[in-house]
Design goal:
The complex is a heterodimer of chains A (795) and B (198). Chain A is α+β, with helices and mostly antiparallel strands. Chain A has a domain at 6-32 and 248-454 and 646-792. Chain A is 64% helix and 9% strand. Chain A contains 32 helices and 15 strands. In chain A, a hairpin with a 2-residue loop joins strand 11 (591-596) and strand 12 (599-609). The two termini of chain A are 39 Å apart. Chain B is an alpha+beta fold. Chain B folds into two domains: 1-30; 31-192, Lipoprotein localisation LolA/LolB/LppX (outer membrane lipoprotein receptor (LolB), chain A), CATH 2.50.20. Chain B has four helices and eleven strands; from the N terminus they run ααββββββααβββββ. In chain B, strand 7 and strand 8 form a beta hairpin. In chain B, helix 3 (113-127) packs antiparallel against helix 4. Classes of the chains: A alpha+beta (795), B alpha+beta (198).
Chain lengths: 795, 198
């Protein structure tokens, strides 16, 4: 290809135009940092409801807070002033640190609305015979220790609705209280429960709230120090720990942002250093980075156009993934002198790109938005980079290149290959042992836990588990998730379940449950209860008959008659009324709207607690519950076992990914066959890669990690990237080719290798798999290359 | 010898009469709060049974209940009602726990001054804690060692409790009366069980 001024102009201008266009798209892109990209996109109704609950549920606004590292007295004092400080800020809708004092707002709610809230309200309650029995039973209650204190309540509520509702609506379990402050069982960590006022998806607001918590905590500790200078040594080690979805979101986001910069930075610096050593020229280096730059720009623009927004992680780690594009520049620089005599150079590069695309495509079908973005970014980026290398790079390079002569490195590698050909037997042996190990352990290879794909660092999850246990808030695993078009309808749906659940509690299949419709009955149910209340005249008549046999004068119960009459005319209880009490927290967590396409639907969540046996919670039998409730369960009322259901979603994806990966492997093999036109050469290319993959898999297994979806994707990437090297090995074995391969592998291993140091589990997995896989692929390809094969006469 | 024996006789009388004399004096003398508290402070553990009657306006018959009482120094008091409805009320330190119908409720007495006034007086007396008594009540002790009456009126202004009257003899509390400002009251008869401590 003669290079003239004329054919310089066209590709340069086209390139510039593309960059400007992409730049325009990038400038108008919406950048996101939330964690929703790590959730699978939902394929069916049940899963959609499940994920809606995860993202929109008000549970995402709850934070568990611990203060530790001092004496119980000091912790209690600081805990109380900290809680008081948080209560003064509107960012927090509720701050609880000691629920022993019953919220006065709750007391008033229960008292005022008792006949609308109570499941006992009905015509049968006010039948004379029943009234007599119930009043007598409650009269006996007055003989209890606190009888003198509760007598005035009895006179107004002789059927005991208030106490029954308190038992029903206010959970008794909770952490212990010491000095008026919640503490864990050991008394070494003060506990608080905080609800944020902002929605769970508003990360900025959550970050500000967490920031405010930290500064307030510092203030509180400081003022404690000035007030109690004699105790100042007690608070040297005091610290605040916070857990909960909002805290996960913010810290994971921070970690991702820091790591994306740090790891990509480290990788880039290492790669640039190597390139600079080889190219010995800043101008050449810039030219070498041109394909990478083009790839990144095109990649971001493509993701932006395809997904409507770009996640920070995509940019940060996508650059690592297309570190491969720097290889093209390397091949081009080092083998330029040979390109004209080696017509298959571009074909080899093209084949390499195609195999890489096959690898990344699997991620495109993974169903996880984050991985799909990464795949799009990588595919578009690679194509752009290779186009840039092929048509733009030659136009900016001088005629003669003076680069570091790497032939010695190539010669050294050749030397090593010759010496190392005996190691081929070792490779065969190792691969065979690895294969045997994998076959014998095939039942233990796979992990079916969705948690493996969680972007949340394990340390944070451990802390969360500890705080939950301290708080007595067991991880809710079993629940009924109900969905309907309006709040009223979903509450009615919820009410259907209550008598059935009560029966299950009585049977001992369930310990307890917490349902929104117990706090806020549907308007229809409230009206129905109101209608069942007798009018004043009628009640007086019934009472006369009922109290005939009781030692109570009718006029003592005048307050009861008044209250029933008032309840009959009471405006119905609405959710706004509950907002100012702690019931508001419960209701917010269990009854919430979910956006679906354009409209919104309402979810009601009935949390199911395991039954107790000898004081210990035993597990819930999901299948037994399912069959007990089967007649009232349907598409919009589902019984969930969160752990199982999430894992089954994951299993579906894992199976899908396995299929796509198998297809990916096949396509790569077919591509190789078409390009190489020889079964034998293809086999020689594939063989070292297969060995490397088997070996890495066995290595991962021996290191104790179970394989998950990401490992599969990683292995496919090893195959895709590694096939490039194998192709070059099988096509040419000049010193320059060998040197360029060594260089390219080094940069790739560095690119993926830095991910090993990531705190984000999923990136670490990809880093370990691909980093070690690519390295082994090169070593195996080198040792098993046909040149050395021929020498040993093995085929 | 004769003289000597006479001395001996007087000496013997003196010796024998002294304790009786002293005792007789204690039995009929006014008791002071300090003395009562010293008696009480010797308790390590007390077991007793109780029968209580509540007289409430508007309810024609007294409401009766009965069960066991227990005190363990320094700060644990248990009222275990057996009839007519089982209930366990336990006051330990600052925490009151109520167990009834299979459910346990726990509360901090400082958060519920009205409830604690009904129970703390008894506990402070049994523990011999004069300081606590004076902190919560206006304390009025009348009677003799043999038959004393401790009247505790809450210092808190708006309390529904008018007075907590404790009647006893020596180191034993025989009855506890709760009087409310509205005229309702309860009387609890206490009988000590014989234990090693006695």
């Amino acid at each position: 290809m003669p290079v003239t001024q004329n054919n310089h102009f066209v590709p340069r201008m086209l390139w510039l135009l593309c960059v400007v266009l992409c730049g325009w798209v990038i400038a108008h892109t919406d950048y996101r940092t939330d964690l929703s990209v790590f959730l699978p996109s939902a394929p069916n109704q049940k899963e959609m409801m499940l994920l809606g609950q995860l993202q929109n549920g008000a549970a995402s606004r709850i934070l568990l807070v611990g203060i530790e590292g001092s004496t119980t007295d000091t912790l209690a004092q600081i805990g109380k002033s900290f809680a008081a400080k948080l209560r003064n800020n509107a960012v927090f809708s509720h701050v609880l640190n000691d629920q022993n004092v019953m919220d006065p707002a709750e007391q008033e709610l229960i008292y005022t609305y008792r006949y609308l809230l109570s499941p006992n309200t009905g015509p049968e309650l006010f039948a004379p015979k029943n009234l007599e029995t119930v009043i007598y039973a409650n009269l006996l209650e007055l003989s209890s220790a606190s009888g003198l204190l509760s007598k005035s309540l009895f006179m107004r509520d002789p059927t005991g609705e208030v106490m029954a509702l308190v038992d029903r609506l206010i959970p008794v379990q909770g952490p212990q209280t010491l000095n008026g402050q919640w503490f864990n069982a050991q008394g070494e960590r003060a506990l608080l429960l905080v609800q944020l006022a902002s929605a769970g998806t508003d990360i900025k607001a959550q970050e500000a709230a967490l920031q405010f918590m930290q500064t307030s905590f510092k203030d509180v500790v400081q003022s404690f120090q000035t007030q109690n200078p004699e105790n100042s040594q007690k608070i040297n080690t005091i610290r605040l720990v916070v857990s909960g979805p909002a805290s996960f979101a913010v810290s994971t986001q921070n970690i991702i942002e820091q790591e994306a910069f740090r790891l990509a930075g480290i990788g880039l610096i290492l790669i640039i250093t190597i390139l600079l050593y080889v190219l010995r020229n800043l101008k050449l280096l810039l030219a070498g980075l041109l394909p990478v730059f083009s790839g990144v720009v095109a990649g971001i623009a493509a993701v932006s156009l395809g997904f409507g927004s770009v996640h920070a992680m995509t940019i940060g780690f996508g650059i690592t993934l297309i570190g491969e594009s720097i290889d093209y520049s390397i091949y081009f620089f080092l083998q330029r002198s040979q390109i004209r005599n080696n017509p298959i150079f571009w074909r080899t590069v093209g084949l390499g790109v195609m195999t890489s695309i096959c690898g990344f495509s699997t991620m495109l079908f993974s169903g996880f938005t984050g991985l799909m973005q990464l795949a799009t970014f990588s595919i578009v980026g690679l194509v752009a980079a290779v186009i840039c290398t092929r048509w733009v790079l030659p136009t900016v390079l001088p005629q003669r290149l003076s680069i570091h002569d790497l032939s010695p490195a190539g010669a050294w590698l050749r030397q090593m290959m010759k010496k190392g050909h005996l190691f081929r037997y070792l490779i065969w042996f190792l691969t065979l042992s690895a294969l045997l190990l994998l076959v014998s352990r095939q039942d233990h290879l796979w992990s079916y836990e969705l948690n493996d794909l969680s972007p949340i660092p394990a340390a944070l999850l451990d802390l969360d588990g500890e705080l939950r246990a301290d708080m007595g808030a067991a991880d809710v695993r079993h629940m009924l998730l109900l969905q309907d078009t309006t709040q009223e309808q979903v509450l009615q749906r919820c009410e259907q379940f209550l008598p059935r659940l009560d029966a299950l509690v009585a049977q001992g299949l369930l310990g307890a449950y917490q349902a929104p419709c117990a706090y806020l009955p549907s308007q229809a149910r409230q009206e129905q209860r109101q209608q069942a209340l007798p009018d004043q005249h009628q009640l007086e008549k019934t009472l006369q008959e009922a109290t005939h046999a009781l030692p109570i004068a009718l006029q003592s119960l005048q307050g009861f008659v008044e209250d029933v009459a008032n309840s009959k005319a009471l405006p119905l209880l609405r959710s706004e009324k509950l907002e100012n009490s702690t019931f508001g927290i419960t209701l917010g967590v269990t009854l919430y709207p979910v956006k679906v396409n354009e409209g919104r639907v309402y979810h009601a969540l009935i949390q199911l607690q395991a039954p107790l046996q000898e004081g210990k919670a035993v597990s819930i039998h999901h299948d037994a519950l399912q069959s007990e409730l089967v007649d009232i369960l349907d598409e919009q009322s589902v019984l969930l076992d969160l752990k199982e259901d999430f894992n089954s979603i994951y299993k579906t994806y894992l199976n899908k990914i396995l299929k796509y990966s198998a297809a990916g492997f096949m396509v790569i093999i077919v591509l190789l066959l078409i390009m190489l036109r020889s079964l034998q050469t293809t086999l020689l290319v594939i063989l070292p890669l297969a060995c490397a993959i088997i070996f890495v898999t066995a290595l991962l297994h021996m290191l104790g990690s179970q394989l998950n979806l990401l490992n599969i994707i990683g292995l496919l990437l090893v195959f895709a990237v590694g096939s490039n090297y194998a192709l070059f090995f099988s096509s040419s074995q000049s010193n320059m080719t060998l040197a360029s391969l060594l260089l390219a592998t080094t940069t790739t291993v560095i690119g993926y290798g830095v991910l090993i140091f990531s705190q984000i589990p999923i990136l670490q997995t990809i880093g370990v798999t691909v980093g070690s896989g690519v390295f082994l692929a090169l070593v195996f390809s080198a040792l098993m290359a046909p040149g050395t094969m021929r020498n040993s006469g093995l085929h | 010898m004769q003289r000597m024996s006479q001395y001996r006789y007087w000496f013997a009388i003196l010796i024998f009469s002294f304790p009786f004399n002293l005792f007789a004096q204690m039995e009929t003398d006014q008791i002071s709060l300090n003395q009562l508290m010293q008696f009480m402070a010797k308790h390590k553990e007390i077991h007793a049974t109780f029968v209580e009657s509540k007289y409430i306006k508007g309810i024609d018959v007294p409401l009766e209940s009965s069960g066991d009482l227990m005190f363990m120094a320094p700060s644990t008091m248990v009222r275990h009602t057996l009839q007519p409805k089982p209930e366990m009320l336990k006051l330990t330190g600052d925490t009151m726990t109520v167990e009834r119908m299979g459910k346990t409720h726990s509360l901090h007495i400082n958060d519920y001054p009205e409830i604690s006034l009904h129970f703390e007086g008894v506990r402070a007396l049994l523990a011999g804690d004069a300081e606590r008594l004076n902190y919560l009540y206006h304390v009025d002790l009348t009677g003799t060692f043999l038959d004393w009456k401790l009247v505790l009126r809450p210092l808190q202004q708006d309390s529904a409790l008018k007075s907590l009257n404790l009647l006893g003899s020596h180191d034993r509390v025989n009855s506890v009366e709760v009087h409310l400002n509205d005229g309702d009251y309860s009387i609890m008869q206490v009988s000590r069980k014989n234990t090693v401590d006695d």
